[in-house]
UniProtKB/TrEMBL annotation:
PANTHER family assigned to the protein according to its UniProt record, in alphabetical order: BIFUNCTIONAL UDP-N-ACETYLGLUCOSAMINE 2-EPIMERASE_N-ACETYLMANNOSAMINE KINASE, ROK (REPRESSOR, ORF, KINASE) FAMILY
Source species: Pengzhenrongella frigida
Protein origin, superkingdom: Bacteria
Record protein name field: ROK family transcriptional regulator
TM region(s), chain numbering: none
Residue span(s) of domain HTH marR-type: 5-50
Membership in a protein family: Belongs to the ROK (NagC/XylR) family.
Phylogenetic placement of the source organism: Bacteria, Bacillati, Actinomycetota, Actinomycetes, Micrococcales
PROSITE patterns from the UniProt entry: ROK
Length: 410
């Protein structure tokens, strides 16, 4: 998909859920009727678009609706989490057509090998050749050296130092690969599943082994200067909270980490004293047991989770104020366990501390994708990349003069 105008037109067609006519495309893009006609003809020839019903809208002759042919391309996504590898296959419309999950093997070499096997298996199961897949997105916990596709000492991934993940996965799968932070991928998944209806400033709070944020403005994910935006682990959310490695007390990351919460549950007698919590899986099991105890009515368990929820809500409120957000989506493996307490905590926090509360509400939502959000998001980012007309192709386009290009950016 190279041509700039074709991409602009294709992007409009895929965003129109019930189809769009050539006349509407011309109005929406500002391109001439002739340019639209040429671009649509090429997209029909290449099989990305099909013609649908002829509809009468307003006066004039019936207009043929144009629809994305969802099965004309696919993207794969993999989320590398300390406990599980999740995989998703999405079609060109962003719809998930296949998914799978396995335990995370130890060490980067074993993860890359397992990933390559599962990606090939998923392609074969769905009858897809390498050329039918636009690309593979890999979502990982940050931080990320995005230029080099390198994961840099991700917390909780044992044996991972500085790993050139992009090169390793590209070589092992033969697919064009991109690597992104998992929370960024998660927000991309929400945008696609909600048909890019998150119009204002949206936050995604990802609760996994710790917490991370992603941000989108008018449907575009913003990632910062090195794609590592959203690392807010050292915001202080509770002056009486636990000691953090940074020297302060009550930082958001440490106050709601699985390590700390499971430790609290052991101290409070909610979990047995010998509860193993050395590995990510053991911590995850401990956290599940803590959440189950709370659901069963254990008062000490409820209090631990209620306090954690208040700390999460405080962190979300600070970030929402900073960015003037009007929508917060909360997801990640640990979000479900805190969900029963988060609504009340967030309502209390925002009623007193949301600085914009007299101007606009802040909507709260669970994830529309659930536990697959990282993998679906990684695949969604591949679609974003494929659909986004690049500045480079804009400059190279013959119809575009440098002056017009600089005006467009100004
Ligand atoms: Zn700290």
């Amino acid at each position: 998909m190279a041509d700039y105008n074709q991409l602009v037109v294709l992007d409009r067609i895929r965003r129109a859920r019930t189809g769009v006519s050539r006349v509407e495309l011309a109005v929406a893009t500002g391109l001439s009727a002739q340019t639209i006609s040429n671009a649509v003809r090429r997209l029909l020839e290449r099989g990305f678009v099909v013609e649908g019903d002829r509809l009468i809208r307003g006066r004039g002759k019936p207009r043929t609706m144009l629809l994305l042919r969802a099965e004309s391309g696919y993207a794969l996504g993999c989320h590398i989490d300390p406990v599980a590898l999740t995989f998703a296959l999405v079609d060109l419309s962003g719809r998930t057509v296949d998914q799978s999950v396995m335990d995370t093997p130890a060490g980067p070499e074993a993860v890359v090998a397992a990933l390559a096997v599962e990606v090939a298996r998923m392609r074969e199961r769905n009858g897809l050749a390498l050329a039918d897949v636009i690309g593979l997105g890999v979502a990982v916990p940050g931080p990320l050296d995005a230029d080099g596709g390198r994961v840099v000492h991700p917390p909780w991934l044992e044996g991972w130092g500085s790993v050139p993940l992009l090169d390793l996965v590209t070589a092992a799968t033969g697919l064009p690969t991109q690597v992104e932070k998992d929370v960024t991928a998660a927000l991309a998944a929400e945008l696609w599943q909600r048909h890019h209806d998150l119009e204002g400033t949206a936050l995604f709070a990802y609760l996994g082994f710790g917490i991370g944020f992603a941000l989108a403005h008018r449907g575009e994910v913003l990632t910062g200067s090195s794609q590592n935006a959203g690392e807010v682990g050292h915001i202080i959310v509770d002056a009486d909270g636990p000691q953090c490695a940074c020297g302060d007390r009550g930082c958001l990351g440490v106050s709601i980490s699985l390590e700390y919460l499971v430790g609290r549950a052991v101290d409070a007698g909610v979990l047995p004293p010998g509860t193993a919590r050395a590995t990510p899986r053991e911590l995850d099991c401990g956290m599940a047991a803590l959440a189950a105890a709370a659901v069963a009515g254990d008062e000490a368990a409820v209090e631990i989770l209620r306090r954690a929820a208040r700390r999460v809500a405080r962190g979300i409120m600070i970030v929402a104020n900073l960015l003037d957000a009007d929508r917060v989506v909360i997801g990640g493996a640990n979000a479900e366990r805190l969900a029963p307490y988060l609504d009340a905590a967030a309502a209390a926090e925002f009623a007193t501390r949301a600085t914009m509360r007299e101007l606009h509400a802040v909507g709260f939502d669970g994830s529309a994708v659930g536990s697959w959000v990282g993998a679906v998001g990684a695949a969604s980012l591949v679609l974003d990349e494929a659909f986004t007309p690049k500045a480079a192709s804009l400059v190279l386009d013959e119809a575009f003069t440098p002056k017009a290009a600089s005006l467009a950016h100004g």
